[in-house]
Amino acid sequence: MLVTLAGAFAVAYSIRFIHDVFFNGEPVDLPRTPHEPPRWMLLPVAVLVVLCIVIGVLPNWSVAPLLQTAAGAALQSPPPAYSLALWHGVNAALLMSLAAMALGAAIYLGRKPLFRHVGPRLERADAGIVYDALIDGLTRLAGAVARWLDTASLQRQLVLVLLAAGGLGMAPWWPPGAGLSGGVTGPGLDAVSLVVGLVLLAAVAAVLALQRQRYMALLPLGVVGLIVSLVFVKFSAPDLALTQLMVEVVSILLLLLALSFLPQTSRAETCPRRLGRDAALALGCGVAASALAWAVLTRAPDTALAQQMMQRSVSEGGGANVVNVILVDFRGYDTLGEITVLALAALGVFALLHGLRLPPGAVPADRRDADAHPPILATLMRLMLPLMLLVAVFIFLRGHNAPGGGFIAGLITAIALLGQYLANGLRWTDQRLRLDARSAIAAGLAVAGLTGLASWIFGRPFLTSAFGHCSLPLIGEVEWASAMAFDLGVYLVVVGATLLMLRQLGGLRPAGGGTEEADAWPR
Amino acid sequence: MAALIAVLIGALTAGGVWLLLRAQTYPVVLGLTLLSYAVNLFLFVMGRLVICAPPIAGRSGTTADPLPQALVLTAIVIGFAMTAFVIVLALRAHAEWGSDHVDGRGDGDGR
Amino acid sequence: MSPLQAALAAHLPIAPVLLPLAAGIVLLALRRAPLALQRAVSVLALLLLLALDVALWLQVQGGAPVVYALGNWPVPVGIVLVADRLAAWMLLVTALVALGALLYALHGEDAHGPHFHVLFQWQLFGLDGAFLTGDLFNLFVFFEVLLLASYGLLLHGGGRLRTRAGLHTSCSICSARPCSCSPWARCTGWRGR
Predict the structure, then answer these.
(1) Do A262 and B53 lie within an 8 Å CB cutoff?
(2) Exposed, middle or buried by CB within 10 Å (0-12, 13-18, 19+), for C2?
């Protein structure tokens, strides 16, 4: 039908073209008088005309072989059977052609009324208008979606992230009915654990309740950290417990320091709808996390890899503390990346505090305690410094065979040194502690990297470790491991990074800009 | 015991998320801290709950899985570094915008 | 080929990762040196990295990916690097884009804040490490490296809008970190199912 219609229009404009050009008299209103082209310019046209007539009248004789080759090449297989001829008998195609010609002639004959009535309407039906409207609509839709997603509001971004994560995390259990519990029961609950768990819940509730009185919220936060550390102890992770304790101390110190430059209390939130939405989302995420944890804990683990690591740890890694051996030997490359992350965070903090101008009223004068450095505290910290450093060295040296290691030792050293800053003030400590934190970071990374490179000398891949025994004159047989040199690198980076971050933060001064020497940390 | 641990992880997550959605930077940092406790615990219990059997070679019997412990150890230290970074960033935002709203707005309410 | 060339070819997969790390360490040690020296070191390191990337690209054209076992440990116990053609292409593209960015930064951007070149080199360390690794948790670690370096570079130069954008980005990504940990943890914890 469409083909016939298209054919009819083709006939109509062809008839108009032929009639008007050749048979409808002389042209009128021409700017210039055309003339016949020279005979030789008509020659190419004549060739094409002859070809048209010949191919149209005698297709099988003229163009069939060419068509066969072309169709076969396009289809990549022998073309289907067809026949080229002018007359195929009276069939649908012939009737369609006749109808098209008749309709076209009719359109041409009735063209003047058509031009009068349909012409103006056709001008308005411009496909361009439709197209423009479509593009415009799509652009506005895209803009609306972008504005909705990429807002300047952190909270909305976080809501989207949390919804997506929670949804994806719980997706395997939709539709409900597939078992959440795997059926394995672990250790039984004892009374002490229950009490400790309840204390943790109470502490979390206290943090939430006190979060507007910012200083007060740090107390239950410390309790939460301590109980997490106890959880690590209970479930056989002494290294983790030590690390968590040390990190807890440094974190609280950090938050206290930062809080002295921020407003002391939070403003009240007045929109109950938002609070409700946030509470619902928080509850949802909490339930999702609980469900996932429950699902994992009630399924049996795959212990093949753990057993392999335990077996290889002494014989091929040279250490009995498998966690430390994993960190500095089996997966030392990971640790190299992690200490780079530490270094980057420290440098980032340094860059952020560099040239930071606090608002002039940031630390009110009445907050400065007259007795900023009580002598008892100062003396005690000075006495404890060698003891703490000794403990740090002990933890470092035993790390390969018993709980300990570079991370924990580094944190203990950092706390010892930060204690000096706390007790004795910045100027006093800086005069005596000639430690350039950034040099320590660079040295630590260099030591770790060079330890790895040393194995290239022996033709082994990067970070291949070695260990052995040697006898020292008075001490006896000592076991050494190259992984301990790597651990030394870790130790230096941890000390340098922690010290850099907290020293810079402690050295901030209001309205003086940047960091300066002074003899009292603001409290 | 598994139920207790699951509940604790859920409580820490819920508290962390609620604080994360507050309008001021300091509660957001507290929320990130709680969330990092939750995630560290979650990763740790992937090794299942084994009581009093630390992964030191030479002990008899089954010990705890050392691999999640190693990964959580680095996660704890990195989490501290990230907390430090975010809080100093919050400090800088406060200094530059004059307000500790997460979007830098100066309006008085908690919106 | 000479022993030196053989050694280089054997350690080629890890070279594009170690070079920016070393360059960053050197630049951190040189932090009080004149900016011109730091710029020279940075550009030299990047050109060397480009050469290493081309060498690695040529090495993997044979079709088989090159596997490098770090610490000489077999697969589940240790980490392996896998350099296939996609990784080699990505390394090359990274180095070329970085070269353009560095040359632009040399016109004054790098003096707006401290440690630009250290951050830049360690950003490349993170990127190259992420492309070459064959271990899922290692990928996560290198994501952390490149993310933190990118925060540092994003906030480089300061300004209110940068600070706010940086705060939003880092909070969003820090909150997404636990969310990405959980699926990973499920993968490893779930093997016993």
Answers:
(1) no
(2) exposed
Among C138, C182, A190, A285, CA closest to B46: C182
Residue A405 lies in a domain: yes
Inter-chain residue contact C144 with B78, CB threshold 8 Å: yes
Measure the CA–CA gap between C90 and C132, rounded to whole angstroms. 9
- Parent domain of A409: 317-523
For residue A177, the model assigns a pLDDT of 58
**Domain count along chain A:** 2
Q: Tell me whether residue A483 is in a domain.
A: yes
Beta carbons of B42 and C185 less than 8 Å apart: yes
Shortest distance between the Cα of C1 and any Cα of chain B, in A, equals: 41
Q: Which of A79, A95, A117 is the last residue before a domain boundary?
A: A117
Report d(CA C58, CA C88) in Å as an integer.
Answer: 9
| pLDDT at A37 (0 to 100) | 84
Residues 6+ apart with CB under 8 A from A155: B21, B23, B102
| List of residues 6+ apart from B8 with CB closer than 8 A | A197, A200, A201, A231, B41
pLDDT in tens, C119-159: 999 999 999 999 999 988 899 899 999 999 998 898 887 77
Q: Which residue ranges make up each domain of chain B?
A: 2-50+62-97
Instruction: Examine the fold and report which residue of A91, A117, A143 is the final residue of a domain before the chain moves on.
Output: A117
B72-81 per-residue burial string, b: 16 or more CB within 10 A, e: under 16? bbbbbbbbbb
Burial A217-241 (b: 16+ CB within 10 A, else e): bbebbbbbbbbbbbbbbbbbbbbbb
Suggest the residue from A151, A342, A347, A451 to mutate for an interface test with chain C (most C CBs closer than 10 A).
Answer: A347
Alpha helices by DSSP H, listed for A87-183, are 92-109, 111-124, 127-149, 154-170
Beta bridge partner(s), residue B24: B101
CB contact under 8 A, C7 and A165: no
Are A344 and C145 within 8 A, CB to CB?
A: yes
The reply to whether A290 falls in a domain is no
Q: Name chain A contacts of B20, Cβ cutoff 8 Å.
A: 158, 162
ipTM tops the 0.90 cut:
yes
What is the distance between the alpha carbons of residues A485 and A329, in angstroms, rounded to a whole number?
Answer: 11
Taking CB atoms and an 8 Å limit, are B70 and A323 in contact across chains?
yes
| Dihedral sign for Cα atoms in the order A101, A102, A105, A107 | negative
What residues pair up with A515 in beta bridges, in sequence order?
A508
What does the alpha-carbon distance between residue A349 and residue A32 come to, in Å, rounded to a whole number?
A: 81
For residue A292, list chain B residues with Cβ-Cβ distance below 8 A.
42
A250, part of any domain:
no
Q: Are B45 and B5 in contact (CB under 8 A)?
A: yes
Hey, which residues does A480 pair with through a beta bridge? A468
| B2-50+62-97 under CATH 1.10.287, yes or no | yes
A436: amino acid identity, one letter: D
Residue A310: which of B15, B30, B55 has the nearest Cβ? Answer: B55
| pTM (predicted TM-score) | 0.79
pLDDT, residue B109, reads 41
Chain B residues near residue A278 by CB distance under 8 angstroms: 17-18, 21-22
